[in-house]
Design brief:
The protein is α+β, with helices and mostly antiparallel strands and 181 residues long. Helices cover 28% and strands 39% of the residues.
């Protein structure tokens, strides 16, 4: 199954995030649908169904090491770099270190069951994927202008394993299970 670990964005922040996404329309961006907005903790290319229960057990152990914590969604960034943007995202200001520690703890624990570690984790919420270089310079100006935009605060209090199912309209994310911190 195609799956990932994520943290859901509360509904009250979605209109503000959608406003920011609307400002990206001029840059040939495939935006993430509002119902799919989330912070990514770990992407799995494919996982076997038999590993799902092991992943849940690992997350239950990891969750005992963390209390719910607050993050401040702040700033626009891009992957792979600020000068060559293929993915536009919102970052985390307050709560960054705790979020990063959570992700690293999960990565280390999953490595024990043969799941490959990602190189470097940056807490982020994907806004959209850039499809072409159209208006590239204007996009870079836009991103510099909003590099410190403040979206709001939210609690990180549970981790969810989502299955990503491809459909003609785009991906559909279905919750497999959640573990509370």
């Amino acid at each position: 199954m195609r799956a990932f670990l994520g943290v859901k964005v509360p509904d009250e922040l979605k209109p503000r995030i959608s406003q920011i996404q609307d400002a990206l329309y001029d840059f040939d961006v495939k935006l993430v649908e509002e119902e799919n907005l989330h912070f990514n903790l770990k992407c799995f290319k494919e996982i076997e169904n038999k590993k799902v229960e092991k992943i849940k057990e690992i997350l239950e152990k990891v969750s005992t090491q963390f209390e719910p914590f607050e993050i401040n969604i702040n700033g626009i960034g891009g992957f792979p770099s600020k000068s060559y943007v293929r993915v536009a995202w919102l970052g985390v200001k307050e709560g960054f270190q705790t979020f990063k520690a959570l992700a690293e703890t999960i990565e280390n624990a999953l490595e024990n069951i043969g799941i490959e570690k990602e190189e470097q984790f940056v807490p982020h919420l994907t806004l959209g994927r850039i499809r072409s270089g159209r208006n590239k310079n204007e996009l870079l100006v836009f991103m510099r202008k909003y590099e410190n935009i403040d979206v709001g605060k939210m609690m990180v209090d549970k981790i969810t394993l989502f299955e990503s199912k491809l459909s003609p309209k785009g991906p559909v994310y279905e919750e497999v299970f959640s573990v509370k911190l």
